[in-house]
Design goal:
There is one protein chain. This protein is mostly helical. 78% of the residues lie in helices and 0% in strands. It has 32 helices and no strands. The protein is globular, with a radius of gyration of 28 Å.
Amino acid sequence: MTNAKHWIGGLAALALVVGSLGGVEVKAETPATAPPSARPTDQNRVAAWKAQDEAFQLTRQKAPRKEIIAKYKEALKYWRLAGDKRKEYLVLSNIAHEYQQRGEFPQFLKYAQLSLFVAQAPHERTLALSSISLAYIALGEYEKNAKISKSRIFESNDPESILLGVLNLAATYYNLGDKSKALDTFDQFIAYWNQKQEPIRQAEALEGLSYQYFKLGEHNKGLELVKQVNRLDPQRKRNPIILDQGVALSIGQVCTKQLEPFSILPKESQAKTEDLPARSESNYIQENRRVIEQFQERIKIVRAGEKISLEAGMLTGLALTHSTLGESQTALDYYRQAFKLDAVTGQRPRQANTLRAIANLLGQQGKYQEAINYLNQSLEFQRILKDLFDQGVTIKDIGVIYETLADYDASISAYQQALAIFKKIGDRRREADTILKIGSIYRQQKNYSLALQQFEQALIVAQQSGNCLVTSNVYRHMSRTYEDAGDPTKSYEYGNLALTFAQNLSDFPFKPASIANALNLMARAKTKAGDYGASLELSRRSQEITRQANLQWANTSVYDVIANAYEASKQYDQAIETFQEKLALVRSLGQYSEEAYIFYFLAKMECQKGNLPTALKHIDSALDVIENIRQDLLSPDLRTRFFSTKQNYYALKINILT
């Protein structure tokens, strides 16, 4: 599990909820109510009008949706008996709409399909097909959605409807792992508006293609297209939907100078890119607390309106925001509530994502077996859905768990599977990240030359795609490798390169966290070189940066760097004080597994001071954590591998006792 997941602020959590609601709401065409004097006397039609009127009354009274749906179904029965196909279509559309509002997507799909069967006018068929498409997306029926969507993208005369249709279809192909069809969709979009010679629409089409490249981590290609877009539409008259999403995908991944193509944004949009770091760094916690309050208020409203899917989305947003603040147990509680609601609505893609989010938090708490179980459940959903992209992400997370448990063969196998998927779908950022993970294992196995070869490959991908964040990360991995190989000079050199790219990043919170991590590596190199004063100065800078940004939880490793410098300079009391601070922090974050090393280090320091009873107490606490984790693992092989990585803990206890 990566900490980057938790660098998403509260505003991003709001965006996540909006993006997870299954698309744009399709409103049903409301049947007109006939005046009493104009109504026919046919018994079935009279009964149909009566039931329909009662449904309207219940709607105005904000009655439970189940009661409204029951009345519409009663009206449907009589319209069918009366043989009125037009009224049958309208009532079916209303039933579908009510199920969509509730978030019961299997029922939404059923009644949307029934409405298509009796639709007569072209606009009725269009509305029914749009509803079916939205239901397929929500249910994860991506292949079915692609089949009905690809032939009707350009049926509408509304440019915004065409744009949304293209974005939905491209996203569907992306989930299925078909990069070429996703890009072909945008090529058709571009050709369509080129033929009509409408510059604004041409700009929107090119911008849609740029967004797809941003999504794939191809920032250089995306930014080049944005320049073309600006030439076609210098006054920025085009639909802002795509550009805003493109900015969101690029911010934090690229260096500041790369954002020049976005410089013509109107003032309100410029604020999103220029003011965000300063605003977020000074009010990060307060901002997220406000978002939590907003979610809680909105949940009350949607719950009263029986909007189950929307409530689940907001619970997910609450979980993400609490996770951002390091409140993992609260986040877990909200994720589990969201999962139960998504099971009711039948939204399997969201269920899979929620399972993975739960697994990530459990992994941080040291509950590795539970994390593996949840990840396997998530993967099962994704394979059923043929969602290749999410399969890659989940398999990579499984690799992280195995790496933590020192099962390096299983970890590399998982990473290689994930890497193959990311290469197939063309996701350059995740391709580079996964190569880094493979190289990191080789480093831990002391195969430094092979590790550096992997990092060189990742660097090529990062530079080709224009990803400054990943470039900084590559240099950090190289720095750590040279440190482990006993070359502090090169370690410092590559740490400094990582710092240079981190300082040029364009957005919070990636920027301060990346700067802090680079400074930590430079400090480690100075400790290895015996320059303890320089090491402490660099690590204190790192600590201050994340403290000012309220990101202390993203920089727990700085305590190790500081304590190691104190240990090397034989300042044991200061080392102990530093790790006691770290213990308080990781406990507040619920990172139980981190406590084992903290107690082990404290025991070592007390031994150096000759305080053996205190040292024994600390090492026993460390071993309690290790045994709890080990006993939780179901696989005997995993238990053995994990145990083999902790032999120094048991050796320390023996030394204390003898």
